[in-house]
C-alpha cells in the first residue's frame, strides 16, 4: 500500500507541477493564419520539455528562465479540422485559414442577437468553417502578457452563433462565401471606448495629457507595497541590519520623518517554566493602528489611537529561551510611535518581562511618498493605452490576415483623430511585427436628426474626413463608406450585412489582389467659374451618377462662410455646383453633416462617394 501511495503522490506531483500552460487563444476550434510562419507559445516549469505534434511533425523546446516557451511552425496550407498535441494537452478541431483582428467600440460590439428579427437566417446558421473569439475586456496601466480568461472559440452553427457579434459574423460569412477559406474573427473591442485607449504610450508622445509618468508610476507602485507584509513578522526573520530605537518614543522625536508603516522587533528570553503558557501582553498606547505578532503568531490589533493595548498571548505560543515580538505600526501622520508612561510588558502568574528599551525597526511603507507620486499621476484615470495594454498587446504573437477598425463615435469632433488613427495603425503593425498589415476602416454611418440648413460644424463629419484622409495617405489601408446604412435615432444601426459586404469588397482588392472597383467617386480638386464651382474627380472613380434623378446634399458658400443647399449637376467627369443665393462662391461641401443620409453621389458600380469639402475652415 505504501508503494501505491508513493506512486500516486508522484503522479499528482507531475499533474500539478509539470503541466504545460497554453494561452487562452490556443484552444479547441481555433483558427490559425495560413501561409505564414506561426508562433505557438505558453508556460511550463523550468527544465520541462515541451513537445508539439501537428500535421505529422514534431517540434520541441524548453521554457526560459521566466517560464515562457515558444516554437515557430512553418507556413501551413488552408484546411482542417486538425488536432494538435502539446505534451498531454490535445487541441481539437483546428482550422487553417484567414484570421481577422476586429476592434473598435460599440458598433463592433453589437451582439448578433439584436439582428435575428431582421435576418432570420441567423437562427439556422450552419457554417462550421468560420470561427469567432471575443477577447474579454481588460484595462491595464501596464502591458499584460495574457488576455483575461473566460472566452472560447465559437463556430457559426446554430447552437454557437448567438455568441457572435454581428459585424464579425456577416464579414466571416462574406469572406468564406467568396474564398472558400476558413475564417477566424478575433474581436477585441469595447463599447464607448476612445481611440487613444487602443494606442500604446510610445505612439502617443505627441499628446502629453495621455502619457503617464512612468518613473512616478514605478515609485507609486513600490510605495503602495508594504515590504514587510507576511515576512518581517516571522519569528526567524533576520533583522540584523535593522536600525535600533528606544521604546517608548515618538517618530518625530527619533528622526523618523514619515507617515506610513514601521515594523518593530524585539527578542526576549523566557525560562523553561513559561513554555506554552498563557500570558498577558501590555503595549501601552500606540499611534495610530497596530498588529502584533508573538513568535510569528498574530495575537491582536487595534485600528485607532486611543484604546490601551492589552492582548492575550494564547497557550502554546511562548517557548523556553529566545522569543520574539513584532509590531506592525501604521500612522497617518509623522507623529506615530509609542506613548510614554504606559505599561509595555508581558505578564503571567510567574514572571513579568519588561519590553521597554532597545528595539529593532524598519520602514515597511512610506505613505507620504505614495501621496507625492500620486500628485504626479493626476492623469492616471484618463491616460491613453489602457485597452491596448490589456487587449491588443497580449495578442502580439497571434498571426492575422488583417485588421478591421470600426470606431469614432467616442471621439466625435476630436481634431486629433487622424493623428490618433495613424498612430494606432503604426503601433499595431509594429507590435504584431507586420509592417504592411492591411487595415480596413469603417467610416462612421449617418446618425441623429437631419439638418434643415447645412451645418458649419459637424463632429461626425470631421471624423469621416479624418478616416478618409487616413485611408488615402496610409499604405495598405482602405475604407468602407456607410452614411446610408445608419439610423437617425439609433447609434447602433442594425444593417451590418451590407456593411460587411462593402468591407470585404475593400479586402478583395487590397488584401486578395482582385482587379475591381472598391471605392466610390473621389474628389480631386475644384475650379471657380463665375457663380459656379466645378468639381473634378480622380479618373479611377468609376464614373459619376446619382442614385435618384438629382444630386442631393451639396452645399455652397461665399467668403462669408455661410453654407446653403446647392444645385449640383453631373457634366461628364465633373460636377457643377451653384446657388442663386451665392453670387461669388468659394467653397463646396458634400454630405457634410452628422446625418447625410440623402447624399446620393455614386459611381456606375453604385458605390457612394465619401463626404468631402473643398475648404479647411
Tell me about this structure.
The chain is an alpha+beta fold. Among the domains are: 243-372, Galactose-binding domain-like (Jelly Rolls); 523-613, no CATH class. It contains nine helices and 35 strands. Strands 1, 3, 4, 6, 7, 8, 9, 10, 23, 24 and 25 form an eleven-stranded mixed beta sheet that branches. A six-stranded antiparallel beta sheet has the order 11-22-12-18-15-16. Strand 3 and strand 4 form a beta hairpin. Helix 3 (166-179) crosses helix 9 (496-510), helix 4 runs antiparallel to helix 5 (367-375) and helix 7 crosses helix 8 (459-473). The chain is elongated, with a radius of gyration of 34 Å.
Number of helices: 9
Which regions have little confidence, pLDDT < 50, spanning 5+ residues? 1-18
Q: CATH superfamily assignment of the domain at 243-372?
A: Galactose-binding domain-like
The top-level CATH class of the domain at 243-372 is: Mainly Beta
In whole angstroms, how far apart are the ends?
A: 88 Å
What class would the helix/strand composition place it in? Answer: alpha+beta
Helix content: 10-25%
Q: Please give the number of β-strands.
A: 35
Largest sheet: number of strands, sense, barrel closure: 11 strands, mixed
Mean pLDDT: 93
CATH topology of the domain at 243-372: Jelly Rolls
Radius of gyration: 34 Å
Question: Which descriptor suits the 3D outline?
Answer: elongated
CATH architectural label of the domain at 243-372: Sandwich
The percent range for strand residues is: 25-35%
Amino acid at each position: 500500500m505504501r508503494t501505491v501511495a508513493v506512486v500516486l503522490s508522484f503522479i499528482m506531483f507531475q499533474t500539478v507541477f509539470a503541466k504545460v500552460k497554453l494561452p487562452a487563444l490556443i484552444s479547441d476550434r481555433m483558427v490559425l493564419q495560413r501561409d505564414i510562419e506561426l508562433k505557438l507559445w505558453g508556460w511550463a516549469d523550468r527544465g520541462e520539455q515541451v513537445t508539439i505534434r501537428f500535421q505529422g511533425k514534431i517540434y520541441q523546446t524548453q521554457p526560459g528562465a521566466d517560464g515562457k516557451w515558444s516554437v515557430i511552425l512553418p507556413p501551413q496550407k488552408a484546411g482542417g479540422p486538425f488536432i494538435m498535441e502539446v505534451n498531454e494537452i490535445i487541441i481539437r478541431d483546428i482550422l487553417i485559414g484567414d484570421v481577422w483582428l476586429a476592434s473598435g467600440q460599440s458598433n463592433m460590439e453589437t451582439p448578433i442577437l439584436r439582428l435575428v428579427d431582421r435576418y432570420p437566417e441567423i437562427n439556422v446558421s450552419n457554417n462550421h468553417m468560420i470561427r469567432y473569439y471575443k477577447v474579454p475586456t481588460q484595462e491595464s496601466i501596464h502591458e499584460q502578457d495574457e488576455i483575461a480568461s473566460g472566452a472560447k472559440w465559437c463556430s457559426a452553427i446554430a447552437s454557437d452563433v448567438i455568441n457572435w457579434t454581428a459585424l464579425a459574423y456577416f464579414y466571416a460569412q462574406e469572406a468564406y462565401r467568396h474564398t472558400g477559406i476558413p475564417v477566424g474573427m478575433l474581436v477585441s473591442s469595447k463599447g464607448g471606448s476612445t481611440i487613444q485607449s487602443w494606442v500604446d504610450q510610445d505612439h502617443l508622445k505627441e499628446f502629453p495629457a495621455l502619457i503617464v509618468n512612468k518613473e512616478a508610476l514605478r515609485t507609486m507602485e513600490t510605495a503602495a507595497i508594504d515590504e514587510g507584509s507576511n515576512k518581517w513578522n516571522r519569528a526567524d526573520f533576520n533583522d540584523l541590519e535593522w536600525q535600533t530605537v528606544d521604546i517608548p518614543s515618538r517618530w518625530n522625536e527619533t528622526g523618523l520623518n514619515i507617515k506610513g508603516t514601521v515594523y518593530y522587533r524585539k527578542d526576549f528570553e523566557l525560562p523553561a517554566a513559561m513554555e506554552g503558557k498563557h500570558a498577558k501582553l501590555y503595549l501601552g498606547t500606540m499611534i495610530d493602528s497596530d498588529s502584533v505578532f508573538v513568535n510569528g503568531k498574530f495575537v491582536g490589533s487595534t485600528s485607532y489611537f486611543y484604546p490601551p493595548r492589552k492582548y492575550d498571548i494564547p497557550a502554546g505560543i511562548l517557548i523556553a529561551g529566545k522569543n520574539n515580538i513584532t509590531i506592525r505600526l501604521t500612522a497617518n501622520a509623522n507623529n506615530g510611535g509609542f506613548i510614554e508612561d504606559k505599561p509595555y510588558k508581558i505578564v503571567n502568574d510567574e514572571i513579568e518581562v519588561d519590553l521597554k528599551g532597545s528595539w529593532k525597526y524598519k520602514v515597511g511603507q512610506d505613505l507620504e511618498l505614495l501621496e507625492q507620486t500620486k500628485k504626479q499621476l493626476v492623469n492616471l484615470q484618463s491616460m491613453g493605452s489602457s485597452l491596448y495594454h490589456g487587449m491588443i498587446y497580449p495578442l502580439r504573437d497571434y498571426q492575422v490576415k488583417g485588421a478591421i477598425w470600426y470606431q469614432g463615435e467616442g471621439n466625435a469632433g476630436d481634431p486629433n483623430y487622424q493623428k490618433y488613427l495613424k498612430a494606432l495603425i503604426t503601433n499595431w503593425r509594429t507590435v504584431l511585427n507586420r509592417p504592411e498589415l492591411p487595415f480596413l476602416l469603417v467610416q462612421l454611418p449617418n446618425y441623429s436628426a437631419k439638418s434643415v440648413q447645412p451645418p458649419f460644424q459637424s463632429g461626425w463629419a470631421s471624423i469621416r474626413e479624418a478616416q478618409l484622409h487616413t485611408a488615402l495617405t496610409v499604405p495598405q489601408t482602405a475604407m468602407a463608406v456607410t452614411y446610408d446604412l445608419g439610423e437617425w435615432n439609433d447609434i447602433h444601426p442594425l444593417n451590418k450585412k451590407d456593411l460587411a459586404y462593402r468591407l470585404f469588397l475593400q479586402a478583395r482588392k487590397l488584401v486578395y489582389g482582385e482587379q475591381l472597383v472598391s471605392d466610390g467617386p473621389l474628389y480631386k480638386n475644384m475650379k471657380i467659374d463665375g457663380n459656379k464651382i466645378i468639381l473634378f474627380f480622380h479618373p479611377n472613380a468609376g464614373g459619376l451618377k446619382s442614385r435618384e434623378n438629382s444630386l442631393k446634399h451639396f452645399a455652397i458658400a461665399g467668403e462669408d462662410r455661410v453654407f446653403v443647399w446647392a444645385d449640383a449637376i453631373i457634366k461628364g467627369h465633373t460636377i457643377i455646383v451653384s446657388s442663386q443665393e451665392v453670387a461669388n462662391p468659394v467653397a463646396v461641401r458634400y454630405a457634410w453633416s452628422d446625418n447625410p443620409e440623402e447624399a446620393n453621389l455614386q459611381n456606375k458600380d453604385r458605390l457612394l462617394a465619401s463626404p468631402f469639402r473643398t475648404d479647411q475652415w
